[in-house]
């Protein structure tokens, strides 16, 4: 089981809007000792959304999906989730009440009584149509809920709504996963050596320390620092410390210039 993120919207892929969900979700997870295992960006393509969800529903992953749960023609996520599971859409009673309450509040704010039976307001109820068996995710911003299907959690694309809803899901359903595995990271900058020269060292470290991952991030350099590679290890604290010691010792043996971070 890992944690996945799906971000949906043509406006993200076209560059009309810059995605803010990915860095925020990484931050939210890190604050709880968790990390993202995978992420996907999708346009407003019903078939592709359905296929992606069908694949992720077949796993045990915890998945957050941002966007596409409104009631406009380009919102396909609710129907796609139902299709992926082979379930019909149903009007969720509590979700309907939440929307109607919001409509009444909007009428009061505008100084006009709300007509719950108007075509416009009846159309808004589509935002409470979810795949059969869905559970609600409360929306503290405007009460129009997201929905959960198993370990998949669907929230709006608006950050002001999506982020507190994701945090609510984590704090309500998954506190038992928080800070379960201590992880540390140690890194250094290597100068004057190609990645190909360092690859045997990286492979040897991962073979010797199975709870550690080695990472290598080349940098072409700039006016401040010359070309280098950020080389490091991350994982279980004791093994990470041992792996970093081996890394430094081997770089010294190879007479490779490096600087610890």
Describe this structure in words.
The structure is a single chain. With 261 residues, this protein is of the alpha/beta class. Helix content is 40%, strand content 23%. It has nine helices and twelve strands. The chain has helices at residues 10-13, 21-30, 46-57, 77-85, 93-110, 119-124, 159-173, 195-208, 237-253, and strands at residues 3-8, 38-42, 62-66, 89-91, 129-131, 135-137, 146-149, 152-155, 184-191, 212-219, 228-235, 257-260. The strands form three sheets. A six-stranded mixed β-sheet has the order 2-1-3-8-7-6, with helices on both faces. A hairpin with an 8-residue loop joins strand 10 and strand 11 (228-235). Helix 2 runs parallel beside helix 7 (159-173). The longest helix has 18 residues, at 93-110. The protein is elongated. The mean pLDDT is 96.
Helix content range of the residues, please? 40-55%
Q: How is the largest sheet built, in terms of strand order?
A: 2-1-3-8-7-6
The profile of the biggest β sheet is: 6 strands, mixed
Estimate what percentage of residues fall within beta strands. Answer: 15-25%
Q: What Rg do the Cα atoms give?
A: 24 Å
Q: Averaging pLDDT over every residue, what do you get?
A: 96
Order of helices and strands: EHHEHEHEHHEEEEHEHEEHE
Number of helices: 9
Shape assignment? elongated
Low-confidence stretches: none
Tally of DSSP β-strands: 12
Structural class: alpha/beta
Distance between the termini: 32 Å
């Amino acid at each position: 089981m890992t944690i996945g993120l799906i971000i949906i919207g043509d406006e993200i892929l076209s560059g009309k809007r810059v995605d803010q969900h990915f860095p925020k979700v990484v931050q939210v997870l890190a604050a709880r000792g968790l990390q993202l295992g995978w992420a996907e960006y999708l346009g407003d393509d019903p078939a592709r959304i359905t296929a992606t969800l069908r694949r992720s529903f077949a796993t045990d992953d915890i998945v957050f999906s941002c966007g596409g749960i409104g009631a406009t023609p380009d919102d396909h996520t609710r129907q796609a989730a139902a299709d992926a599971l082979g379930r019909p859409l149903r009007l969720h009673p509590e979700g309907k009440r939440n929307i109607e309450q919001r409509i009444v509040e909007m009428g009061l704010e505008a100084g006009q009584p709300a007509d719950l039976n108007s075509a416009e307001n009846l159309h808004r109820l589509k935002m409470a149509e979810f795949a059969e068996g869905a559970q609600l995710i409360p929306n503290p911003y405007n009460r129009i809920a997201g929905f959960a299907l198993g370990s998949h959690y669907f929230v709006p694309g608006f950050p002001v709504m999506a982020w507190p809803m994701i945090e609510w899901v984590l704090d309500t359903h998954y506190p038992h996963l928080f800070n379960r595995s201590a992880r540390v990271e140690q890194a250094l900058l290597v100068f004057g050596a190609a990645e190909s020269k360092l690859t045997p060292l990286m492979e040897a470290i991962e073979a010797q320390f199975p709870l550690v991952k080695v990472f290598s991030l080349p940098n072409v350099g700039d006016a401040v620092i010359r070309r280098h590679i950020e080389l490091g290890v991350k994982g279980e604290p004791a093994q990470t410390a041992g792996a970093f010691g081996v890394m430094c010792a081997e770089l010294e043996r190879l007479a490779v210039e490096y600087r610890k971070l």
